[in-house]
Write the structure tokens for this entry.
Amino acid sequence: MGAIWAEVKENRKLGEGIYRLTLHAPAIAPKARPGQFVMLRVAHGNDPLLARPFSIHGAAGEELLILYKVVGRGTRILSQVRTGKTLFLWGPLGRGFDLSGERPVLVAGGMGIAPMAFAARWLAAQGRPAAFCAGLPGLAGWEHLARGLEEELAGSLSLAWSSEDGSLGRRGLVTELLSDTLAAAGASSGGVLACGPMPMLRAVARVCAQRGVACQVSLEAPMACGLGACLGCAIPAAGGGYLRACQEGPVLAAAAVDWERV
Ligand SMILES: Cc1cc2nc3c(=O)[nH]c(=O)nc-3n(C[C@H](O)[C@H](O)[C@H](O)COP(=O)(O)OP(=O)(O)OC[C@H]3O[C@@H](n4cnc5c(N)ncnc54)[C@H](O)[C@@H]3O)c2cc1C
Ligand code: FES
């Protein structure tokens, strides 16, 4: 793990409230694996005090990509950071996805695209076949990101969209698209890897359990340290007790999570 000041190479607006941050992070980027995350301080000084966790969206050479949505004060401050400034971060952190399965199905809901696009690129770079089911509320505000992902992955793995308003791909929830994809894949499905809002992950876990397909989920939890010390990120574990999202996760086997208590 590295803890560094990284220069901002770009902080680009991709849609309404959606930004892609490119950092020069030579001590972190080469070690980054899909599903891992970094803790990022969005400003110099002590306000805001706590770093924010962000999935690693990509890593190329010494550059690290973060895809983020403005939801509160920290991400609003981050969205105003200019090229050439420096930000403090530490990582890569946590356990990422196990990408060793044959023909995995990747599932992303909304900002869950951030780590799943990294996983998709990772598999594509190795020439490994995979399916990618990506769900959005609708195309509005996401056009640039959706088109960019399509161009990037064209010809390397099969990318299918769902949208709740029908403006992109199949109308409905991404879990319905996943069910269709698993039915078409039959016994050749090599497991499901998912990231998105908690209700979506719960539904993905249920679909996979019904079909007997192995499932890994990347879970979000409030995080103060990212290092296993504060216990702020506890996730109820199947069979009792808790798992720390920042240490045992953020990627966990769906079967390891107590979905009733999450
Ligand atoms: C392992 C991990 C990876 C993450 N990866 C990404 C990523 O790639 N891109 C991205 O945009 N965000 C990601 N997040 C969420 C991100 O950390 C939060 O959106 C961010 O910390 C919010 O900071 P803020 O100061 O802007 O908002 P705050 O002022 O802290 O909160 C503003 C509002 O957002 C809500 N909120 C805060 N955190 C979350 C969360 N984790 N999920 C849903 N709502 C939340 C709060 O409840 C509140 O309503 C990740 C979180 C974790 C734990
Ligand atoms: S964030 Fe502190 S223990 Fe996980």
